[in-house]
Amino acid sequence: MRLSKKVVAMAMASMMVFSMTACGNSADSAPATSEPEAEAPATEETNDAAAETETTDAATEDAATDAAEEAADAATATAGEGGNIGVCIYKFDDAFMTTYRNALQEILEGKGYTVTFMDGKNDQAEQNNQINNFIAQGVDALIINPVMTSAADQIIATVKDAGVPTVLINREPTAEQMAAYDKLVYVGCDARQSGTMQGELILDTPNKGDINGDGKVSYIMIQGDPENIDAQYRTEFSVKALTDAGMEVEELDLQRGDWDRNKGQEIAQNDLAKFGEDIEVIFCNNDDMAIGALQAIQAAGRTVNEDIYLVGVDALDAALNEVASGNMTGTVLNDAQGQAEGAVAAMEELLGGKTYAEGEQSIYVDYVKVTPDNVADFQ
Predict the structure, then answer these.
(1) 192-334: CATH number
(2) To the nearest whole percent, how much of the chain has pLDDT over 90?
(3) Protein fold of 84-188+336-365
């Protein structure tokens, strides 16, 4: 069981107080005699001495209390120093997770932690081995970006058995899965919000996505990993925002692009050749695929915001540049810095002894819509 340094410091300071008090009282505890001694008459000198003794005892106790508080404050101030943290990322060459990983490293090392990052290489078995190795090494806490959301049960069972405080990031298990371990918390964004904002970006255009005026919005959807809950929610809620607003929609195609720019380009290229000008909107679950789709759009002689709309998620630097240039309709900020800060804060609370009740284990950071009107705020 890990105790916080502040608790240990307070306990030691309390022992100091007890020790000082015991030493101060020992001189007064002379052995009893059968015959009481004659009581000396009180004098001004003896009254002054008694008062001085009481003052000295009080000062001693005050000094000990001050020492306890200072020790506790010092322990709190250095709580991050010397801790060993293991971080598992689903794969290093994901553009968004690279930004997130860099933010985590800067924050953790800035707080004095020793941190080791492992590349899961998009292989859950590989990541499972990495988690087990971190536990065997005796890390103080884990931050895990699961390769597969479906592996949450196994991951949670492993860290629970080892008693290691754990923060899950980017890919959210169900509330029921999280409830199995009270030293577990998820820090991330609610992907339903990002999907809704993508739909709102289309609704904010002059024709609400119905470029050809036929009364419906015809779109293709380039999805991330369909096993990932973020991909599922972004796919569902981007379209739901349109239908909730009373728009009729037509899905021309939905394909998985696995968050990859090259796959986004290939899917968009094939669909543009197949459906041509019938495509009015291209929804992409992330910016990397959207940038790939943009390459296909430009190669096909189409113009974003004139005869086709294109939206992504993450607000990567490359996507922000395209939004500013008018080559993307918009994107949705997936706040890597804010999530990294939240993940470290939650980790430190767990290290300090905090536990989480069922239903309180998900901490969300808001998404933000990014358009040509506000893109300069994020560059």
Answers:
(1) 3.40.50.2300
(2) 76
(3) Rossmann fold (3.40.50)
